[in-house]
Amino acid sequence: MSTREDANNLHSFTQAFQGLVFGVLLAYLALINLDFGRMHVSLMFLPVAMIFLWPPKASQAWSLFFVFILGVFFDILTSGPIGVWGLSYLLLFVLFDGGIGQKMGTVLALFSFVFALLLVYAMALVFGRFSMGHWPDMGGLAINAVASFFVFPVIYAIVSLFSDAHESQPQSKARP
Amino acid sequence: MEKAGYNRPQQRRMRRRFIALGLVLVSALMLISDRQQKSMLVSGRLSADDTSARIMGFIATPVRGIEALFVKADERANVQGRNVYLTAEVERLRPFEHHVYDLEIRIKNLEAILNIDSSSDIPMQKIVARSVNETNGPFAHSALINVGANKGVAKGHAVMTVDGLYGHIVRVGRNSARVLLLNDLNSRISVMSVRSQSRAILVGNNNDVPRLEYISPDADWNIGDVIVSSGDGGVLPRGLPIGIVVTTKKQKLAVELYTEGRPIDWVWVYPFEPIKTPEDEPVLGVSPDEAKPAIEDTPLTDEQTPTQDEQSGEQAAQ
Q1: CA nearest B140: which of B205, B194, B197, B90?
Q2: Predicted confidence (pLDDT) at residue A18 exceeds the cutoff of 60
C-alpha cells in the first residue's frame, strides 16, 4: 500500500470521525428540553441533520460504523429503547448512500431534509411500536421533527462553512 | 491480493454492503433484545448518564433561565389579580391552620392513650438535587439529576418537587441518577384518594395525564379528588401529593399532575427504605416460620370457644 493511499485512508477515516464528533455534539443539543407551559419542545431529530450532511469524502465503511455508534449513543442518552435511533439512522444512511446534503444546493437540501425527517419519523414510529408494544407519542415526535427542521438551516450553514474551509486546505486539493 | 473476477472498487462495494448488512442485523438484534426491558447496556447507560449530568448541568442553567422568562412574564402580567387571589386564599386557609393544630394535639393524645405510633412515612431527611435534563421524548419520560450514590441516592427513592411527586429513581450512577417520571409508560404507582381513601394504580402512558387503573367497581372516585401515594407495597412513602383527578376525552379517570407544566429545576430525593419482607430480613438463627409468636397459639377449652354469633361479630368489626 503506497504512502499516498495510506494518507487517503487516514483522511477518509478522519472525515468519518468528524461526522461522529459533530453528531455527538448535536445529540447533546438534542437533549435540551424546553417546557413552555404544557408544550415540550426538544430537537430530537437534530442528529439526523448530521447524517444528512455527513462528510461526502468520508470512508463509507467507517461512516456506517460511526452512524451506528451515534444512533446507539443517542438511544442511551435519551434513555429510550436501545436500537430505535441506531437502526433508523443506519437505514437512512444506507438509503441515502451516505451524506447527500453537502452534494446539493441549499433549496434542494432543505426539501431532501424534509424527506429524510419523514423517513426517520416513520421508522422511529414503527421501531418504537415494535420495541415498546404500543405507538410512541406521534404528536410529540412530529413537534420535535418540525422544531429540528427550523434549526436545520443553521446546522447546514455551519457544516458548509466548515466544509468550505476544509476544501480550501492544500491537503484536500492534492487528493486524487 | 485481488480475487479473480473482482476488481478493487467491486470488492470495496461488497465489503460496504457486508458491513451495512451486519450493522443493520446487530441493530435489529439490539432492538429485539431490549424489547419491553431496559436492561441492555446498563454500564454504558450509567457512564453516559454521569457524563450527561455534567454536560447538561452547564447547559441547563441558561435553558431554565429562558423557561423562567416565559413563566415569569406570564406571572408578571397577572400580578394584580394573583395578589388578590392569594390574599383571599390566605384568609380561607387560616381557619384550616388552626384546625390542623387542633387535630395534631388530638392525634398525639390518642396515640399516647393507645400506645401506637401513626407518624407519617415521609422521611424528614431529604437530598437536594438539580434536575439537569428532562427527557419528554416520544419513547421515554425521564429526568437526570446531579446526585447519585455519592450522596446516598438509591434505586426506588421517591423524587419530589415543591409541587408534588416527580417520579422515582430507576438508575443510580456515582454522580447522577435517572428519575422515571410519573407519566412514563413504565411507571406504576399505587395511589389513593384523600377524600375517600379509594385505591388505584397510577399508570403512565407517555402523555401529560397518566391514567387511573385497577379501580374496583364500588370504589368512590370523583373529579377533583386529591391524589396521594398510598404507600401500599411499602415501595413509596404514604401521603406524597401527586395531583387531581380529571377525566379524559374517553371519559376515563386520569390525574393532572401537580408537577406538569412547570419548569423543574430543584428536586428532593426522599431516602425512604422500603418495608422488608420477613424473608428478606430474617431473625438470626430463626427461620420466619419458627419465630416465637407474641401470643401463644394454645387450643381453647369449650368454655373459651367463641359462639358463631361472636365469630361473625368479630369478622364484621375486622
Answers
A1: B205
A2: yes
* DSSP notation for B7-43: -HHHHHHHHHHHHHHHHHHHHHHHHHHTTT---TTHH
Compute the Cα dihedral for B277, B283, B284, B285 and give only its sign: negative
pLDDT at B316: 44
ipTM exceeding 0.85? no
Which set of grid coordinates corresponds to residue A103?
Answer: 452534494
What proportions of chain A, in percent to the nearest 5, are helix, strand and coil? 75, 5, 20
What does the pLDDT read at residue A176?
38
- Measured between beta carbons, the chain A residues lying within 8 angstroms of B66 are 34
Q: How large is the average pLDDT for residues B75-84?
A: 82
Query: Which pLDDT band holds residue B179 (cuts at 50, 70, 90)?
Result: very high
Q: In chain B, which ranges are E strands?
A: 127-136, 141-145, 158-160, 165-172, 177-181, 188-193, 199-203, 211-213, 226-229, 241-247, 253-257, 266-270
Burial (CB count <10 Å: 0-12, 13-18, 19+), residue A112? middle
- Tens of pLDDT along B218-255? 888 888 889 999 888 777 888 889 999 998 777 788 99
Q: How far is A68 from chain B (nearest CA, A)?
A: 7
By residue count, chain B amounts to: 318
Residues of B in contact with A77 (CB under 8 A): 48, 52
| DSSP 8-state symbol, B260 | T
* Residue B134 with chain A: CB contacts under 8 Å: 33, 35
Query: How confident is the model over B248-294, as pLDDT tens digits?
Result: 777 788 999 988 877 788 899 988 777 777 777 777 666 655 555 55
Bridge partners of B144, per DSSP, are B133, B178
What whole-number distance in Å separates Cα of residue B193 and Cα of residue B248?
Answer: 18
Check A35 against B139: CB less than 8 A apart: no
pLDDT value at position B317?
Answer: 43
Q: Which residue of B has its CA nearest to A32?
A: B133
**Length of chain A measured in residues:** 176
CA gap B187, B180 in Å, rounded: 7
CB distance A80–B139 less than 8 Å?
yes
Q: What whole-number distance in Å separates Cα of residue A101 and Cα of residue A52?
A: 5
Residue A112 makes CB contacts below 8 A (sequence gap 6+) with: A52, A100, A101, A104
- Among residues B22, B14, B21, B19, the alpha carbon closest in space to that of A61 is found at B19
The contacts of residue B164 (CB under 8 Å, 6+ apart) are: B240, B241, B242, B243, B257, B258, B259
CA torsion sign for B313, B314, B317, B318 is: negative
- Label residue A19 left, alpha or beta by phi (over 0 means left) and psi (-120 to 50 means alpha): alpha
What is this structure's pTM?
Answer: 0.71
